[in-house]
Amino acid sequence: MDGCPVHIDIVGFLELAAKGDFRAAVNLIKESDALPAITGRVCPQETQCRAGLRDGSQVRAGGHRRVERFLADWEASQGDMPTPELAPPSGKQVAVVGSGPAGLTVAADLARLGHRVTIFEALHEAGGGAGLRHPEFRLPKAIVHREVDYVCGLGVELIKDFVVGQTATLDELLTEYDAVFLGSGAGLPWFLDLPGENLSGVYSANEYLTRSNLMKAYRFPEYRHPHRRGRRVITIGGGNVAMDACRTACAWGPRSPSWSTGAPGRRCRPGPRRSTGPRRRASSSCT
After folding, report:
1. Whose CA is closest to 35, among 117, 122, 130?
2. In 3D, which of 77, 94, 197 has the Cα closest to residue 143?
3. What is residue 15's three-state secondary structure?
4. pLDDT of residue 117
């Protein structure tokens, strides 16, 4: 719990889930975390809540994110996501800039405290990095939309296509709102300062994944693209984002996507040939 950014009562919801009281378990999570379906899929627990654990305790504790994801999906499967009790209206108005996980969490917490909250999103879709940078196989867009709808159900107003700084300045917002929360995200990537990294065809992972999502070029889990272009893709890095970039590249149909750090020598290999119809080149699938 000390390593959890929102201090979820991990032990408490695991005990309730073990007893079969799923409703109480998910309600306990939502006392601290308004987006359990998202955090249960993409939260980096290995560097947060599990970072302080040692030896075999990490193995025993490794499944609580899956339990959190299950509980969130179970609640949605019931067809009714009850609204938590809200505090009386405070008369205060807060503007939240950005509809990513930070903005949605702040908006939900403030709404529960009785404040009137408005989220301003620059893009045409809410969700921020969770919606645009995570591929479908890691975080389905339907899950993001569901969590956004839950936050809006708390009385939060969502305004899209609103670029703070251009559509309206911060000073203008502060004339109408009592406070402004800036949750615009970590949009700038870290480069390696290597010669040629600004050339055409070299992308940061965030830009590559965002482009793929916006162009809707990725279709999971088919892993096939009608036109193989015979190109190679190299991903520098071996973390979660690097794996997302590799799997996304496989969907585009490159010749042999690979990565150089964290998993040396591993590459995407050709999938099975079609058993019927004209003979074609094999499609790519990641291993």
Report:
1. 130
2. 77
3. helix
4. 97
CA distance readout (Å), 84 to 17, 29, 39, 87, 227: 20, 12, 19, 10, 49
At residue 62, the pLDDT reads: 55
- Please state the φ and ψ torsions of residue 81, each to the nearest 5 degrees: -105, 95
Question: Does residue 210 sit in helix, strand or coil?
Answer: helix
What are 249's two structure tokens?
């590249």
State the average pLDDT for the chain: 79
Rounded to 5°, the CA angle 96-101-106 comes to: 40
* Token digits of residue 169: 């300045």
Q: How many CB atoms lie within 10 A of CB 100?
A: 23
Q: Is the distance from CB of 284 to CB of 250 less than 8 angstroms?
A: yes
| pLDDT top residue among 224 and 175 | 175
**Alpha-carbon distance 35 to 146, whole Å?**
9
- The identity of residue 102, as a single letter, is A
Respond yes or no on whether the N-terminal peptide bond of residue 221 is cis (omega within 30° of 0). Answer: yes
Q: How far apart (Å, rounded) are the C-alpha atoms in residues 227 and 181? A: 45
CA–CA separation, 272 and 285 (whole Å): 9
Write the single-letter amino acid at 95.
A
pLDDT of res. 242:
87
Would the CA dihedral through 150, 154, 155, 158 be positive or negative? negative
54: Cβ contacts below 8 Å, ≥ 6 apart? none
Residue 52 has pLDDT above 70, yes or no: no
